[in-house]
Amino acid sequence: MYRIGIDVGGTFTDVTLLNADTGKYYTYKLSSTPHDQSVAIMNGTKEILELYNISARDVNYFGHGTTVATNIIIERKGAKTALLTTRGFRDILEIGRQTRPSLYNLFEEKPETLVKRSLRRELNERVRSDGSVAKAIEPKEIIAALEKIKQEGVESLAVCFLFSFLNSENEKAVEDCIKQVWPEVYYSLSSAILPEFREFERLSTTVINSYLGPKMKIYIDNMQERVKEVGVTVEPYITQSNGGVMSISSTVETPVQTALSGPSAGVVGAIYVAESAGFKNIITYDMGGTSTDVSLVNNGTAEYTTKRKVCGLPSGVPMIDVHAVGAGGGSIARVDSAGALKVGPESAGSVPGPACYGLGGDNPVVTDANLVLGRINPKHFLGGRMQIKAKYAEKAIREKVAGKLGMSVEEAAQGIIRVVNSNMSRAIRVITVERGYNPSDFTLVAYGGAGPLHAVHLAQDMGIKTVLIPSAPGVLCAFGLLTADIKKSYVKTWLSKYDEAGPELLNSIFKPLIKQGNAWLASENVPEANRKFNNIVEMRYIGQNYELQVSVRSGAISQSDFEELKTKFFKEHEKNYGYFNPTAPVQFVNFRTEAIGIVAKPNLATIEKMTDNIKKALIETREVYFAETGTIDCPVYDRYKIGQIDRVQGPCIIEQMDSTTVIPPNTHFKVDCYGNIIVTV
Amino acid sequence: MSIKFDGVLLEIIENTFMSIAEEMGAVLVKSAYSTNIKERKDCSCAIFDAEGNTIAQAEHIPMHLGSLLGMVRDIRKNYAPEDIHEGDMFIANDPYNGGGTHLPDIAIASPVFWENEVVAYVINIAHHNDVGGRVPGSNAADSETIYEEGIRIPPVKIFRKGQLDDDILRLILLNCRINEIRRGDLHAQFACNRKGIQRVQEACKKFGKTTLTAYMKELLNYSERKIRQAISQIPNGTFEFTDYLDSDGRGSAPVPIHVKLEIRDTEIFLDFTKNCPQVKGALNLTETALLACIYYSLKCIVEPSLPSNGGYYRAIKYKVEPGTLVACKDPAAVAGRTDTAQRVVDVIFGAMAQVVPKRVVAGCNSAITSIVFGGENPKTNKFYIYLETVAGGSGARFNKDGLDAVQVHMTNTSNLPIESLESEYPLMVEQYKMITDSGGAGKYRGGLGIRKDIRILDHQCIFSVKADRQKLPPWGLEGGKTGAAGKIVINPDSADPIILDSKKSNTLLAPGTILSCQTPGSGGYGDARERSRELIVLDLEQGMISRSSAIEDYGLTEAELSAIKIFSE
Questions:
Q1: Is the complex ipTM more than 0.90?
Q2: Best residue in A83, A92, A102, A103 to probe B by mutation, most B CBs within 10 Å?
Q3: Which residues make Cβ contacts (< 8 Å) with residue A432, sequence separation at least 6?
Q4: I need a labelling partner for A668 at 20 to 30 A (CA). Which of A167, A384, A556, A569 fits?
Q5: Residue B72, pLDDT above cutoff 80
C-alpha cells in the first residue's frame, strides 16, 4: 500500500509517495496553482502515480498541508463575519492589548480586525468572575439580533461572552437560537473553540475561526472532489498547526487550527528523521526563500505555545512553537547610510528575484552571495530548471556592498552570509537561551532549499556540535505529512490554589477532557489501541500571570502524583527563570489534554554502504571561497551517489536536486544508513 | 592598538548586544511576580559601556531610558573604581541621587567584569506597584515633596561580591505595601542581570575584549553618523512651540511648556530655558527624564531606524535651567512626571511639524491616564492595589487617520485582561469601548479615546487618578481639528455625576459606585472638508463619528445623511 503527502507552498507543490511495505519513498515537485490550490494537488497526485505506475486505489493514506487558511487571513478574503458579545465590550476586538504596533515608527498600522464594528452586536448578559450568572440572556433579544444580522448578508457568526470559559450557559443559549432561526449559518462559540481565560485572546481565536470556516469548507470540499477524480478513495487528512492531522470534517469545524500549519509538517518530519538517526534533542531549521523557521524539540517532543499570532492577530490554540525571522535565500543585502551591512527582512521574491536570475533585479541577495562564493552550482540551480548567472550576482555585490564597505567581492559575499547567519542565530537564541536551553545540547536539523547551505556555519556560530541534513531536505514538509499523528487538544481553565486542591480535583477535570478526546478519536476512526492522551497542567505562583506547563499521568492521578506536580513545577520554574520559591503559594490555571491517534509509521529504506572511496561521487572540483582558507579548489559530490560512509573530511560541497550542502573546512561528516548527512562541527 | 572596523562585524556585534538585552527582558518579564511587569511589561533592560553610554536597550518603555541614563553616572559618582567588584549589584530609585525619574521605577545595575576590568554594565528597571509614600501605588500627582512619594534609594550595593545583602532588602521591603510581591519582582530583576552578565562575558570570550570594546565605541560612532546624515536632510531654521499641562497638580491654572528648537546643519539644538520654576505638585521632570523625551521624539521624527544606543545623542544639544519644571531639583515631587514628559514630546513634535509636517503626527492623547484602586478585598480580607494606565487616541498623519485606542509616545504598556482584573480584585468592568467623536476631525481623522467604567464591589475603595489633557484637548495639524479631552467621572449615568480633577488622590468610593475613565482622543490632520466622502461614510457606519459631527465638521447635509446607514447600538 502507498501513502501520499502533498504540501502546497507559495511557489511549489511538493508530493511524496511512500511505499509503506518497503519504506522507499519518491518525491515530486510541480508549480503551485495559487488561484485554486487543488488543481496542483490533483495534477501532482496523478502525475506521481503515473510516473511510478501505481494505482490510485492502492493509496491508503492521503495527507495534505495547506496554506489556504493563512492566505485567507493575509488577503482578508474570509467570510463576512458578525460577532455577538457581552454588552459594553464590542471594542475589545479592536482595543486588544492597547499597545501600538511600533515604538518609533509613527506610520505603522494596527492589524485590521476581521469583524467590522457595525457587525459586532452587544447582548445583555453577564457572567461573574466566579462563574455565576449576573444577567441571564433573553432568547427574544438573541433572535432579534440574529434577524438583524441576517439582513446584512452575514455568512458566519462568532459568539464570545466574558467568563464563558467558566460558564457557557449564555453562549449555549445563543447556539440554541442559531439552530432554531438560522440553522445553515456557520458559527463558533468561544467556549467550544478555546474555553480558556483572557478575553481578548479567546475572542480573537473565535473570530479567526468563524472568519475562516465557510471558505475553508468550500476549499476542502473542492479538494476532496479533485482527489476523488484521480481515483483516490481514502478521505484526506489535513495538517494542523500543532503538527498533527485531522479529518476534513474536524478541520471544517476548527479551521483556526490550520492557520499556521505551514511549517509544522516540516517539524514533524524532522523529528521523525532525527529520531530514526538517534537524535531526540534537536533544533529544526527550515530556511526558504523569504524566511527561516526554527523550533525546538526536546526529547522527541516539539515545544508548544498558545501565544502565536496569525498576521498580527492572536490565536490561542496550541501550536508548535515555530519562530520565524525574515531571513532567506532572497533576503536583500544593503549598506545603510552609516556603513553597516544589513540583510533582510526585505526579500527580492521570485520576481525580479536575486540579481543572478538576470530578470532585472539589481539588489544582491543571499543566493547571489552563495553563488559568488562558489557554493551554489550555476548549472544545477533547482535541478537545472532555472538559468542563473554569476556575473550578475558579482556586479550587484560589487556595486551595492563591496564598493561601499571597501572589501573584495568575495569578502563582501562572505559578509552577507555572516550577517544573515547572525540574524538566524538571533532567532535560534529566542527559542533556546531565552527559554533556558543551551543550544550545544541540541542537534541542528537543516532543511528547506537553503538550510543545508548555511547550517554548518550557523552551528559554528551557536556552539552547536552536530548538524543533520535529511536525505531530501527540500521536501521534508511533504514527508512529514506521512508521519503525522491525528491530534487535537482540549483545555479547561479552572483557577484553583494548589493547597486547596487534590488528586480528586484533577481527576474530575481530566476525566471529561479525556472523554471528549475519546469521542473525537472514535469519530476519526482511530482504534482504541492506538489512542494516547497527554495531560498537562499549567501552573504558576499566585500573583504571576504566566503559566508553566507540567505533564501529568494520563491515567488516574494518585496523591503521590499530585505531590510530585509541585516539585515538577519548581524544576520548570528554575529552568525557565533561574530560581524557584519553595514556600510561595502555587495555583493551577489551565488543564490540557492532547488526544492523539497514533498513525503507523513507515520504516525508512536503508542505503548501501559505500565500498569505494567518496571519489566515486565526485562531480567536479570547483573554486569555493571559505573565510578560513580563502578561495580553494573544493570537491563537489553528487548526493545521490554517496552511500553509507563513515568519515569524510571537509571542505566539500554536496549537491542534490532540491538543495546544496556546504561542509566547511575543519569539519567532517558521515552518512548513515538512511542517507542522512551527519556533520561534526 | 588600532582596529580596522568593518560593516559586517559591526552589524554582528550590534545583533549580539540586542540579543542580550532582549534575553534579559524575557527573563525579567517571565519571572516577575506582579502583573504590572509581567502582563503590562512595564520594564526595560539595557547594556551600557564602562563610561555609562547606552550600547543597547530592549525597547519596552521609552520613558525608562531616563533612569537608565543616570544610573551608571550616579554609581560612578558614589563609588571609586576600586570599590566596585565582580558580583556587586547596585539598586537605586532616587531621582536626585540614583538616576531615577520617579520612585516606583527601581533600577538594578551590575558591572560586568572581564579580565579584571569593568567592560560594561547591565541594567534593568521595573515599575513596582508600590514603594510606600502617602498613597497606594506611590504615584500621586498632588504630593508636594519627594518625601511623600515613598522610599528613596540612592545607589547602594544590594549584592556584594555575589552575596545578597539581606539587611538592605529587608529595609526596602518594609517600606513598601504588599512586600512579598516586591520581593518576587526584585528577585526577577536580579536573575535578569545575572543572565546579562553571563552573556556579555560570553561575547568578550567570543570576540576578544579589545575587539568588543572597540566595536562598542564604533557602534556609538555609527549611530552618530546615521543621525547626522538624517538631520542634514532637514532644512535649517528655528521653531518654537508651547503647549500646556492642565495644572501643577495642586489645582493651579494651566502650566505652559515651551521649546525653541533649531536645526543647524547636522545638529539639533533644543532650548528649554523658558520654562517655569518647578511646580508645587508632583509633575516635575528630572533632567534625565527630559533627555529620554528628547531622544525619543527625535528618533521617531528624524530616523526611526536608529539603533538604540547613545551615539546619536551627540548630535543633539540642549539647554535647561536647573530648578525648573523640566529639570527639577531636590526635593521636588516627581511621581506625576509622565504627563509632563508626554507634553515635552508634544512641544518637540509641534516645533518639528513646522519644518517636516509629513514626518510627525498631530497631538496625541499624550496623557498617561493612571487610575489606581486600593482597599481591602472583602473576599480575602487582604489589602489590594490595582493600577492601570488607559490608552487613548494617536494623532492623525498627513496621509492616514490616527490609530484608535493605543498607548502613545513615552509609554506602551498593555492593559490587564478584564477576566484577570475581575478574578483578582473586587471590581467589575461595566463597559470598555472607544469613544465616538473623540478623534479630531480632519482630512485624516484623529484616533479615538477609550472609556472604561469600573464598578466597586462590596467594599470601600480608595481611588487616585493621575492624568492630563482634560482641560486642553490634543491639537490638530494643518487645519485639522482638536480631539476630545479626557475626563474622570463618578457615576457617569446617574442624576448627579461628579467630575474629578485629573490629578486627584485618595477619593473614597462607596460600594456600588461606578468610576468612569474616559481618555482623550487626538488631533486631526488637514481640513475636514477635504476628507474623502468614502471615509466619512465608513466612519458613520462604524460609529467612529456621530451624525452631528458629520454635519458640523464634515459638512454633510441631512439629505446626504439619509442615504447612509448610520451606526446604532
A1: yes
A2: A103
A3: A283, A296, A438, A439, A442
A4: A384
A5: yes
